[in-house]
Write a structure and sequence with these properties.
70% helix; globular; mainly alpha; 16 helices
Length: 308
Amino acid sequence: MKKGVLHVVVVIILALLSFAVVLHFNPFSLITGKLHFDYRFANTTEKEYALLLQMALTALDDDPLVYYENTKKIVREACVAIEKRKDTSVEALFISSVQLIREQELAKSFDQLYEIISKNPKWCEAYCYLGYTGFKHDTLPIEKSIEYLKKAIECNPQKARYYSFLATVYRHLYKETQDNQYMLLAEQNFKSALELDLEDLNAYNNYANFLVEIGDYEKAEEYYRKAIAIYPEHGKPYYNLACVKSLQGDKQSALKYLKQAIDKNPDFRYDAKNDPDLTNIKDTPEFLMWIYNYRATTSIHSNGNTSK
């Protein structure tokens, strides 16, 4: 009898081990109650690994601020494989540095970006991320951020995004100082970005933000609509249109665009809660319901009530 029980236990253990090989999980985690599946790219052939890195680099080129879920997923999977191999190639360092930025590990990320530059001074993206991240997170003097973004442009003058990011820094300086020199530099660089890439979402969106700041609401709306036409599933232009309409006193349009933004990315609820541009609609039942009791819907009636 005891031998029979022992035989069954051995068979179960062997089955678990076999299952673990197929599904890449630790069978002993069943005992601790902490079942954990590794990413499917944790164990890859060299060819699969090279393909995964290329997929991550391509995704980041299209989505440098890592907005889309697919980009987040690919970058995470690549980082698992990179860590497993202890890869320190410039490609691997760059991908993992972006993930570190997302995790707010800025010092580690910057160390890797500096290492990339030391290994390959022509890796333009490293300069771009140093400049823009340093500005966005206020971890570098703004003069240094401008220096790195100019270096990125010098490295690749055909990359629209570099001009767009540099324009955003100048836009910030204009907002802080009201110095017309910065206004002209911002406009010049935004236009350079759009001349190089007619589908640069960030350029359209950020240039429109700049136009709002200088009071040209009509032209700003035109550029937000262009951004929506290019990437209709990206919520940011809808959110910014809501802000413009609110500033103009058009509550109904502001509510419509805010709902569209939140449906595309519910995180906009947190932005909207404290955004002074939306003050005109913050006392409406719709705003309060969407911010505090959000339920996704696909449209909004003319009277402001939501519908499925």
